[in-house]
């Protein structure tokens, strides 16, 4: 599933590239105002922080919510106390787009994450051109050379890589990169199985000084408390926010 999602994302980026060349996208990326400092915003604090996700549908759950106005949802997230917004820009299985990211960027003052299956420099330049401050890199989808190249490009463009892992070996690879914002996704991206305890089992392997992000499987404040007790600085939440009351849920999560 992960290799299919990544291959589809590359094919879709190639289609966009036929209309908008790498040179054009690079120019747009370099003309953008500087990215927000997501590491400063997500820095560990006395309270857990939330990255709130715009997620219309998913391979594991199908349609989740008919989000007609992602900018309005992002403003609700900001009102509810989210520290950053994740925008799923993958179109085929998640129903997202770069247009969603552009409208969210214009609507909020928070850092915005491009959440997609990134494996080419073109996709990174697209992210910055659309106004992203953070870009997701999924360790399982990239070999070490690609991971290094994309990580360095994201940093060179002034953005922050969120390096996503799902095993001890992947966490070690993220640490070797020098990643300072590292996620452990409870969801196995190939089988869709959820393991809320994975974060806790890997928590000791995070490098010193890294911001620890627990991704996926938050349905309630109790789940946030579970991740927090295991050492999470930040939780990344999608489904529970798009299917429930985003402001009320965020406030409940932040009260943990
Ligand atoms: O959500 C999926 O079904 C999925 C399947 C395959 C690859 C990625 C997938 N989701 C991306 C994410 O990691 C989540 O959207 C994100 O962590 C939020 O998860 P949740 O709060 O459980 O919606």
Automatic annotation (TrEMBL):
Residues 4-246 form the Indole-3-glycerol phosphate synthase domain. GO terms for biological process: L-tryptophan biosynthetic process. Pathway: Amino-acid biosynthesis; L-tryptophan biosynthesis; L-tryptophan from chorismate: step 4/5. It catalyses: 1-(2-carboxyphenylamino)-1-deoxy-D-ribulose 5-phosphate + H(+) = (1S,2R)-1-C-(indol-3-yl)glycerol 3-phosphate + CO2 + H2O. Its EC number is 4.1.1.48. The keyword Cell membrane does not apply. The keyword Lyase applies. InterPro entries: Aldolase_TIM (IPR013785), Indole-3-glycerol_P_synth (IPR045186), Indole-3-glycerol_P_synth_dom (IPR013798), Indole-3-GlycerolPSynthase_CS (IPR001468), RibuloseP-bd_barrel (IPR011060). It comes from the Bacteria. Keywords: Amino-acid biosynthesis, Aromatic amino acid biosynthesis, Decarboxylase, Lyase, Tryptophan biosynthesis. It is an enzyme of class 4 (lyase). One of its GO terms (molecular function) is phosphoribosylanthranilate isomerase activity. Belongs to the TrpC family. This is indole-3-glycerol-phosphate synthase. The lineage of its organism: Bacteria, Bacillati, Actinomycetota, Actinomycetes, Micrococcales.
């Amino acid at each position: 599933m992960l290799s299919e999602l990544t291959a589809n994302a590359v094919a879709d980026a190639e289609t966009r590239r036929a209309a908008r060349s790498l040179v054009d996208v690079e120019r747009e990326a370099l003309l953008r105002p500087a990215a927000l400092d997501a590491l400063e915003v997500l820095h560990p604090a006395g309270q857990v922080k939330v990255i709130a996700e715009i997620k219309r549908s998913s391979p594991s759950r199908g349609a989740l919510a008919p989000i007609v106005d992602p900018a309005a949802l992002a403003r609700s997230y900001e009102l509810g106390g989210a520290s950053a917004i994740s925008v799923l820009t993958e179109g085929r299985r998640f129903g997202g787009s770069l247009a969603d990211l552009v409208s969210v960027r214009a609507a909020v003052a928070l850092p915005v994450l491009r959440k997609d299956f990134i494996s080419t420099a073109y996709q990174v330049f697209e992210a910055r051109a659309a106004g992203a401050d953070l870009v997701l890199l999924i360790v399982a989808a990239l070999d070490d050379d690609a991971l290094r190249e994309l990580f360095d490009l994201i940093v060179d463009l002034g953005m922050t890589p969120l390096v996503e892992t799902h095993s001890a070996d992947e966490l070690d690879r993220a640490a070797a990169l020098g990643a300072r914002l590292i996620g452990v996704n409870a969801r196995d991206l190939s089988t869709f199985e959820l393991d809320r305890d994975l974060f806790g089992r890997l928590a000791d392997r995070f490098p010193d000084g890294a911001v620890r992000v627990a991704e996926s499987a938050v349905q309630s404040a109790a789940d946030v408390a579970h991740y927090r007790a295991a050492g999470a600085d930040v939780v990344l939440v999608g489904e529970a926010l798009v299917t429930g009351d985003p402001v009320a849920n965020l406030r409940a999560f932040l009260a943990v």
